[in-house]
Amino acid sequence: MRVNVVEHFMGEGWQLRPAGGATGEAYVAEQGQQKIFIKRNSSPFLAVLSAEGIVPKLLWTKRLESGDVITAQQWVNGRELKALEMRESRVAKLLAKIHQSGELLDMFKRMGNNPLEPRMILDAVVQKTASLHFRDSKMDAALAFLQAELPRVTTGEYVVCHADVHHNNWIEDDKGSLFLIDWDGAEVADPALDLAPLLYDYIPKEEWDSFLASYGHRLTDSLRERITWYRVVQCADHVLWCHQKQDKEGAFKWLQVLGDLVKKKDESSI
């Protein structure tokens, strides 16, 4: 949807500018001292996220004649969390609130979203590897590891996962409130889907226990295995993404991470 279409919908006096993001469908709308965040076809459970204080307050929702849905949220005068701040207990507590939300999970299920099973994730990576004709010994070892460990990571615990917990999506407003934004890729999945990148990318290993204590969970053998499995499959996907984009440096970096992960896991099992 072009900016002029949104401007026509908003009416005279509103000035719009793109707010960034992968979809290109988010805007900042301003009129005098008023400032709001506008988006087309945002997450259909935005109202629940807003009611639970997970995202900035939802102001209104409008449906256009085309069928598109426009949402307006309160503009947050805030900032993205820095990488070092991701180890703070408030991050763990907000993620726990999301994962423990029965209302979010019920709404997701009513929308027909089935759990994202580990087998489905692995099959997608295997198929993508084949379609790209990508061959590398580290990738081969990773796929063998993922296949071998698959029976050990099947779990009956499924929650609503954000699926992109990069620090740029964590926003602190000028009052100190914390939000997790950009829910377009959310999935019903094992909570390890979110915990794996968060722990490996931001939390030193010696702090995993204390972080997970704030999250409300012990680092059991089962959780550790699932976190490792999801980290490996996510790294494999990063390799393929970089390869597809012809980013040789990025692919090499993620292959090294992948190789180290599988090697350490093999050594720990000896």
Automatic annotation (TrEMBL):
<dbReference type="Pfam" id="PF01636">
    <property type="entry name" value="APH"/>
</dbReference>
<protein>
    <submittedName>
        <fullName>Phosphotransferase family protein</fullName>
    </submittedName>
</protein>
<feature type="domain" description="Aminoglycoside phosphotransferase">
    <location>
        <begin position="45"/>
        <end position="225"/>
    </location>
</feature>
<dbReference type="InterPro" id="IPR002575">
    <property type="entry name" value="Aminoglycoside_PTrfase"/>
</dbReference>
<keyword id="KW-0808">Transferase</keyword>
<dbReference type="InterPro" id="IPR052077">
    <property type="entry name" value="CcrZ_PhaseVar_Mediator"/>
</dbReference>
<dbReference type="GO" id="GO:0016740">
    <property type="term" value="F:transferase activity"/>
</dbReference>
<dbReference type="InterPro" id="IPR011009">
    <property type="entry name" value="Kinase-like_dom_sf"/>
</dbReference>
